[in-house]
Amino acid sequence: MTVHGTCDPRFSQVREEFEANLAHRGEVGASVCVIVDGEVAVDLWGGQAAPGRPWASDTIGHVWSCTKGATALCAHVLASRGDLDLDAPVVRYWPEYGVRGKGGTLVRHLLSHQAGLPALREPLPPGAFYDWKLMAGRLAEQEPYWEPGTRHGYHALTFGYLVGEVVRRVSGRSLGTFFREEVAEPLGLDFWLGLPEEQEGRVAPTVPADPPQAPASFYLRAFGDPASVQAAVLAHEGGYMAAGESDSRAAHAAEIGAVGGITNARGLAGMYRPLSLGGGDLVTREHLALMSLTASAGADAVLLAPTHFALGFVKQVDNRHLPEPDSEGVLLAETAFGHVGMGGSIGFCDPAARLAFGYTMSRQGAGLGVNPRGQALVDAAYRALGHRQAYGGIWYA
C-alpha cells in the first residue's frame, strides 16, 4: 500500500517501519507524525480508511484513550492559570461529589486513577455515555470501590466525566468546548471532543482486533467473575462497547472525555508540540515540570498489570516480563509523558528531547499497551534522535 506525506531523511527509519507495518504487520490504515524542535520531521499516512477509500491526508479516526491526554491537558491549563488547585478536595468545585466516603478525594486523585470510581456499580440505560449530566450525577452519588488515594486502578471509561466535570465547573464551559476554544483552535488542530456532523465523512471506522490466543488478565477477570470491578467496566457502559456503537454518529457527537476523541497523528503530535517546547501558551514551564512527575505506579487494581501514571498521563512502563498480551507496556524515555489508546494508538511529548509524537490507526491490537506496530515507530524516532535503548527496553539519551 502506498505511503504518502513527508519525511526528513534523518527519520527515514520511521518511514521504513511505517511501510513495514502496512506490508507485514497487518496495518490497515494509519498515520504517524513526529515533531522535533517545533518542526514537523515526519507526517505520513497510508493504507485504507475504509474498503475502497484510501487513507487521506485529512482522514481522522477514533483514538480511544489518547483522549485522556486531551482531557488532562484541559485541567492543567486551568491549574497553570491558578483557577484550579490540583491538591484541593474535589468538593471545592463539585460539592455534590462529597458523599459516600468521597469527601476527601483530591483533584489529583481523579487525574492519577486513584479516585476509586473505575466503573459504575449498576447498569446504565442505553446511550448513557451521551448524557453528560446523567454520568456526572451517577458518579457523584456512587460509593468508591476503594478509599480514594490508597491505590490506583485504571478509570478506563469514567476518567473523562470525573476530570471533565471539574473542568466544566471551574471554567463554565463543557469539556469539548473548553478543549476546542483553549487548545484545538489556538493550535490549529484537527482534534475533536464532540465531532461536528459535517466532519463525519472523514472518519476511518475502527477495525476490531482479532481475538487473542491468550486474553489479558483484565479480560480473564472480567469474563470469569461477573461480580468483579473488571466486569463492571465492560458491562455498565450503556452499550457503548457494543460492536460498532463507538463508531455511531451519536458516539462521535458526544463529549466522552475518556475515550471519545477523534483526530489523526498530526492532531495528537500537534497537541503535545507546545509541551515539548516548554509549555507554550498552554502551561508555564514550572507547571510543565509537575505534569511529567509520577503520581501513581505499580500494580493496577483494575488492569491487573503494572501501570505508571503522571497526573492524567501515561509514563513509561516495561511489562515485557509478563505473558502476552499483558506484556504490552509503554517504552518511552523517562522524561516522556502522554497517553495510549485502546488498540495501540499513542500521543506523547518528551520535553528533554523536544519531541512530540502521534500515531493513529484503524485496526486495533489485542493488548492494553503499545503494540509492535506503534512501538516500532516510537523506537525509530528515538534512534533518529541519537538515543540508545538501555536495560529494560526504556529509551535514554
UniProtKB/TrEMBL annotation:
Beta-lactamase-related domain segment(s): 18-366
Highest taxon in the source lineage: Bacteria
Name of the molecule in the record: CubicO group peptidase (Beta-lactamase class C family)
